[in-house]
Amino acid sequence: MQEPSKAAKPGDLALLLDARGKPFLVRLEPGGRLHTHRGVVAHEDCIGRPWGSVVRSHRGEPFYLLEPSTEELIRYLPRQTQILYPKDIGYILLKLAVRPGRLVLEAGTGSGGLTLALAQAVWPLGRVVTYEVRPEMQALARRNLERVGLAEMVTWRLRDIAEGFEETEADALFLDLPEPWAHLPQAAAALRSGGFFGAILPTVNQVIRLLEALPAHGFGFIETVEVLLRPYHAVGWRFRPADRMVAHTGFLIFARRLLEPPAPEEGTFPAAPEEESLEIPSGIQP
User: Fold this and answer.
1) Are 138 and 118 in contact (CB under 8 A)?
2) Nearest Cα to 93, choosing from 181, 172, 176, 210?
C-alpha cells in the first residue's frame, strides 16, 4: 500500500510554478493570497494538499505546488549584487566539510546566497558568522534568510575583517572579497589548525596573487578549480544541449591551515584528482 504524500502546512515555504514554469515563492498562511498575471491563488487551496499537486487560480489557471529545493531558494532570492551560483556553492560545501555542528565564517555576505546554504548545512547545532561592511547588503541578506526561516542560525557582523575576526578556532572560512590575500593574517588567526579555507575570484591575476600569498601565512595543500555546468533540453524527442550555459563564474581556491608552514613547492596539488589513486587503509570502509 502506497503511503500518502506529505502535505503542505501553514507556515511552509512553497514554490508555485505556473504552466510555463514561472516561479513564485510564498509562505503559506491562512487567508493569504498570491496575485499573479494568471489569477489569484488562495493559500487555503494549497494548505493540506500533497506536494506535487495542481492548484488553480480564480481564473482556472494551473499552478504546481512544490517544496522548494535549496538551489531554487538561492536562485530566486531578491538580490542587489551577483550571488554565488548553486554549481559553485555545492562544491564549496563539500570542500569546506560543512556539516551540522560546525562553526563556519564568511566574509562578504552580499545578498546571502552562500549564507543560506551554509546555515542550512550546519543546522541545527552549528553556527554561521557572516561579515559585511555594507549595512544595506546585510539588511537584504538578513531579510532573505528570515524569509526561509534560517536567520537565527546566523550571527550577523557589520564589520571590516581588516580589524580581525571576533571568532577563533573556526572549522571553515570563506572569503568572497576582491583582495582576499590582504586578509590572510586575519583568516589564519580565526581558523583552527587543520581548518578549511576557501575563496572565490573572477580573474587569473587575482588568483595568482592569492596563490603566492597563501603559503607565507601557514596555508598548504592549495587547490584551484573552476566548476562548469552544462544544461540540456530535458525533452526526449529533442534532447540536446541548451543553447546557452553559464560558463565561467569564478575560480575557487581552497587550502588548509597548517601548524607548520609548508616548504617551497610543497603543500599544493600539482596533479588533477582523477590522476591520483586513493589508498584506503584496512579497517576503513569506503
Assistant:
1) no
2) 172
Q: 269: exposed, middle or buried (C-beta count within 10 Å: 0-12, 13-18, 19+)?
A: middle
Q: What is the pLDDT along the chain (286 residues), one digit of tens a residue?
A: 334 469 999 999 999 999 999 999 999 999 999 999 999 999 999 999 999 999 999 999 999 999 999 999 998 888 877 779 899 999 999 999 999 999 999 999 999 999 999 999 999 999 999 999 999 999 999 999 999 999 999 999 999 999 999 999 999 999 999 999 999 999 999 999 999 999 999 999 999 999 999 999 999 999 999 999 999 988 888 899 988 888 889 999 999 999 987 676 655 555 455 555 555 555 555 4
233-239-240-243 Cα dihedral, nearest 10 degrees: -30
Give residue 221's identity as a one-letter amino acid code: F
132 - beta bridge partners?
Answer: 158
- Give the position of cell 566539510: 97
Q: Are strands 62-66 and 232-233 parallel, antiparallel or unpaired?
A: unpaired
Strand 13-18 versus strand 219-225 pairing type: unpaired
- Please write down the HEC assignment for all residues of the chain: CCCCCCECCCCCEEEEEECCCCEEEEECCCCCEEEECCEEEEHHHCCCCECCCEEECCCCCEEEEECCCHHHHHHCCCCCCCCCCHHHHHHHHHHCCCCCCCEEEEECCCCCHHHHHHHHHHCCCCEEEEEECCHHHHHHHHHHHHHCCCHHHEEEEECCHHHCCCCCCEEEEEECCCCHHHHHHHHHHHEEEEEEEEEEECCHHHHHHHHHHCHHHCEEEEEEECCCCCCEECCHHHCEECCCCCCCCCEEEEEEECCCCCCCCCCECCCCHHHCCCCCCCCCCC
